[in-house]
Specification:
alpha/beta, Arc Repressor Mutant, subunit A, Aspartate Aminotransferase, domain 1, eight-stranded mixed beta sheet, 15 strands
Length: about 450
């Protein structure tokens, strides 16, 4: 980059330098692929310590604006949207990366819809429908603890709750701890909000203690955690890990903890929370989209009284409330024995089909295990992108782990596979195709 462009970057602190680069990018002075000045050159240009420029570039990288390429320098990234969940459009391949529930295992809405007629809801009425609130109180209290003060509200899904909770607590460039690998929509929401994503590694017991401690030391003001069926890994917090994480958080009682229990009624695992009785700022979000369908854009949120009050200000009746017709429909379904039987059947189906496919992979020399959730997180001995290319030639469209990564390099050798809707024959064929794809990639690298 020439001297004139470098000279336009201003600031004497990391935040000021990062803001300057961001503003120049927004004004079109920088384009995707442009290389920023080296740390040494910019530090000399601005008359600051090299560590100040390093910190600025780190902030920009964590917000997704730039990427470091080692000796090739720090470059402006392509600000294309983060990959999203759901079906891939415009493909003839069999899509095994959707992350979708099985439509055949979503309760039928017909009967419940017919009984929704009632008096109209007018401006100024409570945000949450009274019947739904009465049902949800014990459901949420059981998870957070009966003695813990809390208030409920309703949002247009889990990501709507996440966006509003972060907006009421944070400012631009504030740091947010995210699991790494991370749920795509959470990552997208944090980046779009202008917050700084700080990765916390995930292992077989959930969010790691060392990772959370490092994130807190880095100054995060919010922690987003998936206690069960973490997406994409399928891991769930163990009781021991949750206890250890609570100990780490004990010294940070005003850091906002957001727990996304997205799989809730479908989960096969117990719920273990990061939130201790003494923690001051917290929220538990339970969406209905996995068991009542993605189009049921509704999540129930339990929070400490202060956080709930702040959230309520962003959900004023007459502006952004969630339709009471939708709330009544959700209530009708979660209180229907027939609908709940479908949900229980779905939970058993997802667990059984994922376990069966993991066994197929293991039998073919690719050790795999089924976690909780709609998909499998399969480790490979070779890069996932190479295997994905091989699978495309065999008629499959898979999702590679690098789409979910903040910094976790190991995830680049993972596939996230949604296989619960495959027939037995198709599942066997896919398992064989994955094993053969791995062999083809390995042989090609040997040559």
């Amino acid at each position: 980059m020439n001297h004139d462009v470098a000279a336009r970057i201003t600031g004497s602190s990391a935040i000021e330098i990062a803001d300057s680069v961001r503003a120049l990018t927004e004004r079109g002075a920088f384009f995707p692929g442009d290389t920023l000045p080296s740390v040494r050159a910019l530090a000399q240009e601005l008359g600051v310590n090299r560590n100040t420029v390093i910190a600025a570039y780190r902030q920009l990288a964590q917000s997704g604006l730039v990427e470091s390429r080692g000796r090739a320098g720090t470059r402006i990234t392509d600000r294309a949207p983060v990959a999203q969940e759901g079906f891939a459009s415009g493909t003839v391949l069999r899509d095994i990366g959707t992350g979708n529930p099985d439509p055949a295992l979503i309760p039928d809405l017909s009967a419940a819809l017919a009984g929704l007629a009632g008096r109209p809801v007018l401006y100024g009425e409570p945000v949450i429908d009274p019947d739904l609130e009465r049902w949800a109180l014990p459901w949420m209290s059981e998870a957070v603890g009966e003695a813990k003060p809390m208030r409920l509200t309703i949002t247009g899904g889990a990501i709507d709750a996440l966006e509003r909770l972060l907006a009421q607590a944070l400012h631009r460039d504030d740091a947010v701890a995210l699991e790494d690998p991370c749920f795509l929509s959470s990552l997208h929401t944090v980046r779009l909000g202008g917050y700084r994503a700080v990765p916390v590694a995930v292992d077989d017991e959930g969010m790691t203690v060392a990772g959370l401690r490092a994130a807190l030391d880095d100054g995060v003001r919010a922690v987003v955690c998936t206690p069960r069926a973490q997406n994409p890994t399928g891991t769930s917090l163990t009781a021991e890990r949750a206890s250890a994480l609570r100990e780490v958080l004990a010294e940070h009682p005003y850091v906002l903890i957001i727990e996304d229990d997205h799989f809730s009624m479908l989960s096969t695992q117990p719920y273990h929370s990061l939130v201790s009785a003494e923690h001051q700022r917290w929220s538990l979000v339970r969406s209905v989209s996995k068991f009542l369908g993605p189009d049921m854009c509704l999540a129930i949120t339990a929070s400490d009284p202060y956080t709930a009050a702040q959230l309520a200000k962003r959900l004023s009746p007459g502006t952004t409330w969630v339709s009471h017709l939708l709330q009544r429909l959700a209530h009708a379904l979660v209180t229907s024995d027939e609908a709940l039987a479908v949900v229980r059947s779905a939970a058993q189906h997802y667990a059984a089909r994922n376990a069966a496919f993991a066994n197929m992979m293991t039998a073919r020399g690719v050790p795999a295990s089924a976690g909780d959730g709609l998909s499998l997180w399969v480790a490979l001995p070779v890069p996932a992108r190479d295997v994905s290319d091989q699978l495309m030639r065999r008629g499959w469209l898979a999702r590679t782990g690098d789409e979910f990564v903040l910094v976790d390099a190991a995830a680049r050798r993972r596939l996230r596979l949604t296989v619960h809707d495959l027939t037995d024959d198709d599942a066997e064929r896919l398992a064989t195709d994955i094993a053969e794809s791995i062999t083809a990639v390995t042989e090609r690298k040997v040559r």
